[in-house]
Amino acid sequence: ETGVTQSPTHLIKTRGQQVTLRCSSQSGHNTVSWYQQALGQGPQFIFQYYREEENGRGNFPPRFSGLQFPNYSSELNVNALELDDSALYLCASSFTENTEAFFGQGTRLTVV
Amino acid sequence: GQQVMQIPQYQHVQEGEDFTTYCNSSTTLSNIQWYKQRPGGHPVFLIQLVKSGEVKKQKRLTFQFGEAKKNSSLHITATQTTDVGTYFCAGPGGSQGNLIFGKGTKLSVKP
Lengths: 112, 111
What we know:
By secondary structure, chain A is mostly beta strands. Chain A has strands at residues 5-7, 10-13, 19-24, 31-37, 44-50, 53-57, 64-68, 74-78, 87-94, 102-103, 107-111. In chain A, strands 2, 4, 5, 6, 9, 10 and 11 form a seven-stranded mixed β-sheet that branches. Chain A has a four-stranded antiparallel β-sheet with strand order 1-3-8-7, with no helix packed on it. Chain A is globular. The relative contact order of chain A is 0.34. By secondary structure, chain B is mainly β. Chain B is 0% helix and 54% strand. Chain B contains no helices and eleven strands. Chain A binds chain B through residues 2, 31, 33, 35, 40-45, 48, 50, 55-58, 90, 92, 97-106, and chain B through 30-31, 33, 35, 41-45, 48, 88, 90, 92-93, 95-104.
């Protein structure tokens, strides 16, 4: 196991609602990235946090937002959920932005 | 934008047969990483290649990084049922600090 934990593991939300997903990084890692993985696809980069600051962002709308806390844990918030937001959301921590990424088990979000 | 492409999308093999997946980037990469995702699981890091022409082996798995640092391959010798899963390659996305993943090659192994 990687030491990266995510909660919850599964979640069902209604279109238009808001959701918060949580991630606890591996000890010693100060960089956390969030990815969205649709069924049958590779992970798509949402954003990355380094020492509590957003360090990069993929092609996702502003209703996807995040936070990183002093203990390097992180949150992903999604507002105004849409059906297409249904996916596996993965958190990955690493020492730096380009070293190996340690993924959590993911949160399976279903929007109905 | 930068793209990472993998072929084939699916591969079905008989246990004991070899398997190869290929990865191509639209841009030169500083490094390339390979991950394995078991059904219902999350991506697990396998290896990172950095040098042009680099070849690394992990037991039955052989990883290569092309001379131009734009392509890579993963070869599995004598597949086993434990090799089942989707294999992804991923390259740095540049200043955004992200990894750009290919769509993966899903391997199934028939006993």
